[in-house]
Amino acid sequence: MIEYQFRPMGKTCAGTGKAFQPGERCRSVVIEQDGQFHRLDFSEAGWKGLPEGAVGEWVSFIPDGPPKPKVVDTESLMRTFEQFCEDGNPGHDQFRYVLALLLLKKRRLRLEGSRTDDDGNDFLQVIGSKSEGPFEIADQDLNETEIEQLEAAIIAQLEAESTESDE
After folding, report:
1. What is the arrangement of strands in the sheet containing 109-116, beginning at the earlier edge strand?
2. Dihedral in degrees, nearest 10, Cα atoms 97, 101, 104, 108
3. Cβ distance 11 to 30 under 8 Å?
4. Which of 13, 19, 31, 123 is the most exposed place for a label (fewest CB within 10 A)?
5. Strands (E), the chain
6. 74 and 155 in contact (C-beta within 8 Å)?
7. Cβ-count burial of 80 within 10 angstroms (0-12 exposed, 13-18 middle, 19+ buried)?
8. Beta bridge partners of residue 123, listed in sequence order
């Protein structure tokens, strides 16, 4: 059996060019053109029957509201955290710190303690819930906005990598 990957449902009708509306019925077809398979989505108004080269069709409904965001799994976060810890690049200190906070929130890391070095730098001492580590993470003294921005960047990157690996 051969497996094919098709793009997700389009935002506009292939027949009329008008945007789909939530709850609207949609007819989707797969056509073969020049040895390639393509997906086309049609509204009821734009549907004129099966197009030439059609090899499959189905009916669905346009979902209500925006698509649910992908949830980045905790193990992906943990792998990324471990990679940042291994590389030791000071340019990744903030990412390491925010990943540690995310993983503490998700209980994938446990706080074992903290320490302050002779220069007054604070460190979190954490261990993985599956006995990874221990890890020592420098406190980056970030405000809420900075943490949220870095969190969003990390999650967007992991979602993009996840999407690439799904294709």
Report:
1. 109-116, 122-128, 135-138
2. -60
3. no
4. 19
5. 25-33, 36-43, 54-61, 109-116, 122-128, 135-138
6. no
7. buried
8. 115, 138
- Return d(Cα 12, Cα 42) in angstroms, integer: 8
Mean pLDDT, residues 94-99 taken together: 94
Q: What is the pLDDT of residues 15-61, one digit of tens each?
A: 999 999 999 999 999 998 888 888 999 999 999 999 988 988 999 99
Amino acid at residue number 167: E
Residue corresponding to tokens 């609207």: 24
SS3 12: strand
The answer, yes or no, to whether the previous bond of 134 is cis (omega within 30 of 0) is: yes
Task: Copy the structure tokens of residue 73.
Answer: 């799994």
Q: How far apart are CA 79 and CA 97, in angstroms?
A: 14
